[in-house]
Amino acid sequence: LALEPDTERYYASLGYCYYRMERYTDAEKALSSAIASNPNKAENQYNMALVKLELGKNTEAMQYAGKAVQLKPDSPEYLYTMGLATEKSGNPDAAITFYQKAISLQPAYVLPRINLGKIYDDQKQYSRALEVLLKAYQIDPDSLEVNNNLGNVYLHSELYNDSIVHYKKALTKKPNDTLIRYHLAIAYIETGQKDLAKTTLNEIIKIDPNYWDAYYRLGSLLYADGKKDEAQTVFKTLLEKNPQYEKRDEIRKLIG
C-alpha cells in the first residue's frame, strides 16, 4: 500500500485480514477503499457485507450483499449472506427466498438450512422446520446448531423424547451451554423425568450462578415433590441474589 496506495487488491486483502482478526472497523475502512477503486468486484462487496453484519449494520449489509448477488447470482454463499442480512433487518419472509435459492444451488449447504429451519420454527410451521433441519442432520449429524435447533423444534412440537436426544447430542459439542441445558431440563420435566431435570438444573446453576430461571424451576420441582425445606432454600437463594426476579410474588406466596 505504501508503494501503490490506489491498488484495489491490496486494500481488499488488508480488509479481509482485518476481518479475520475481528478488527471490523479497520476492515470496513480498507474494504471501502477497495470498493471505491473497483465497485464491480463481487468478492469485495461480499466481504463488506460480512463486516457490516459483525458491526450490526444490517441494512448496509443488505446493500452490499445485494450488490454481490447482482454481480454473481449463482453464488450460494452470497445468497446465504443476503438472506442473513435480510433476516437480521427484520424481514424473515424475504430471507426465506434467499435461503431457498442458496440451497437449490448447493443442496449440501447446511447454514441456510439451519436459518430456514429457525424461521419456520418461529412461525410455528413445525413440519416445515423439521423437514429442513432433518435434511441438515443427514448432511451433518454432529453439528451443534443442527442438533440444538432440532431439539427446539421437537420441544415446541411437544415431541419431548426426540428433543432430549438432540439436546444431549448438542451438549457433547458445547457442554457449558446453559440455554441448551435449560431446554433439556424442560424436556425432562415434560416427560416426568424429575430427577434428571433436577440434576440438569443444578448443573446449570454451577455453570452460571446467575441463571435465575434454573433456580425457579428447581425450587418448583422440589416444592411439588414435597421437599419444601429444600425448595425454600433454593427460592430464598434466588431472591437474595435477585430481589427483583419477575416471579418473586409467586415465590413469596410459596415460601410464606
Keywords:
single chain, 256 residues, mainly alpha
Task: Please sum up the structure shown.
The chain is mainly α and 256 residues long. It has 15 helices and no strands.
What do you see in this structure?
With 256 residues, the chain is mostly helical. It has helices at 8-20, 24-37, 42-54, 58-71, 76-88, 92-105, 110-122, 126-139, 144-156, 160-173, 178-190, 194-207, 212-224, 228-241, 248-255. The model has no long low-confidence stretch (mean pLDDT 96).
Itemize the secondary structure elements and their pairings.
Blueprint: H1 8-20, H2 24-37, H3 42-54, H4 58-71, H5 76-88, H6 92-105, H7 110-122, H8 126-139, H9 144-156, H10 160-173, H11 178-190, H12 194-207, H13 212-224, H14 228-241, H15 248-255
Helix pairs in contact: 1-2, 1-3, 2-3, 3-4, 3-5, 4-5, 5-6, 6-7, 7-8, 7-9, 8-9, 9-10, 9-11, 10-11, 11-12, 12-13, 13-14, 14-15
Number of H/I helices: 15
Poorly predicted runs of 5 or more residues? none
SSE order: HHHHHHHHHHHHHHH
Portion of residues in helices? over 70%
Task: Please count the beta strands (DSSP E, at least 2 residues each).
Answer: 0
